[in-house]
Amino acid sequence: MTKCITTVKEMQTLTSQFKREGQSIGFVPTMGALHDGHLTMMRQSRSENDISIISVFVNPLQFGPNEDYEAYPRQIEQDTQAASSAGVDYVFAPSVDEMYPNTLGITLKVGRMAEVLEGAQRPGHFEGVVTVVNKLFNIVQPDRAYFGKKDAQQLAIVEKLVQDFNHPIEIRGIDIVREDDGLAKSSRNVYLTEQERQEAVHLSKSLTLAKEMYDKGERHSANIINAVTDYLHNHTSGEVQEVAVYSYPELEEQDVIHGQIFISLAVKFSKARLIDNIII
């Protein structure tokens, strides 16, 4: 039976006990509104650790002034049931006051990795992400933590956080979980209209086009970016906000492709901004 915990003190007491007993802890941080992508990470955690913990916390620090913090779906009872079905032992669901009882006197600055892609569109977003992840790591003390590759920039930044601050944690990047038609599963997909949901399949199709170009020998980023952008303009009504090619995990822009890269895109529909990517 999955137990829901709402205070930092109780969570820390439990995880300290598990550590003393020599039990391994797997951790999946989430903002709730759980879908199959989250459940895949939970099942992986369950299979690789003695204890599995998830957090459900909509972190205000990572939302900008015009973003959907207030509207972000909150459904803790459904989320706890979903986590239970995946074999999770504990759901850590603190309030904002519990996580941030005082104004933060010390903050984390991400630097160059947060100045591109999503970070350029959403100033301060990744500072909010690393602040909450750092706090959660200190509270939960996991041996392994699981993050989705759909947020590939976030994954790279979290890996750098662990490296730079010497967290004794293994970060596991989990492949994007998709709907049958290829759309990346996301808590924001519920905001799409019926027409937009049909169009949204073309995000993943545009990335397939990019990979086909790469496989045929195309190494100039501009040619891939232009082809993907044209495809999205022709097949969706959304605003194409970004198509980019970066090295991975260094997050350096690539004019001529070499080494491991990721091709990422962002399309803004009427009520949802969707992102997708492919790592090659």
Poorly predicted spans: none
The number of helical elements comes to 9
Describe the sheet with the most strands. Answer: 6 strands, parallel
CATH superfamily of the largest domain: HUPs
Q: Would you kindly provide a brief summary of this structure?
A:
With 280 residues, the chain is α/β, with parallel strands linked by helices.
Secondary structure layout plus pairing:
Layout: E1 3-5, H1 8-20, E2 25-30, H2 36-48, E3 51-56, H3 76-85, E4 90-92, H4 96-99, H5 117-121, H6 125-140, E5 144-148, H7 152-164, E6 170-174, H8 194-215, H9 221-235, E7 239-247, E8 261-268, E9 273-279
Parallel strand pairs: 1-4, 2-3, 2-5, 3-4, 5-6
Antiparallel strand pairs: 7-8, 8-9
Helix pairs in contact: 6-7, 8-9
Structural commentary:
The active site is at 38 (proton donor). Belongs to the pantothenate synthetase family. With 280 residues, the protein is of the alpha/beta class. It folds into 2 domains: 3-174, Rossmann fold (3-Layer(aba) Sandwich), CATH 3.40.50; 187-279, Pantoate--beta-alanine Ligase, Chain: A,domain 2, CATH 3.30.1300. The chain is built from 9 helices and 9 strands. The strands form 2 sheets. Strands 1-4-3-2-5-6 form a 6-stranded parallel sheet, sandwiched between helices. The chain has a 3-stranded antiparallel sheet with strand order 7-8-9, with helices on one face. Helix 6 crosses helix 7 and helix 8 (194-215) runs antiparallel to helix 9 (221-235). The longest helix is centred in the last third of the chain and has 22 residues, at 194-215.
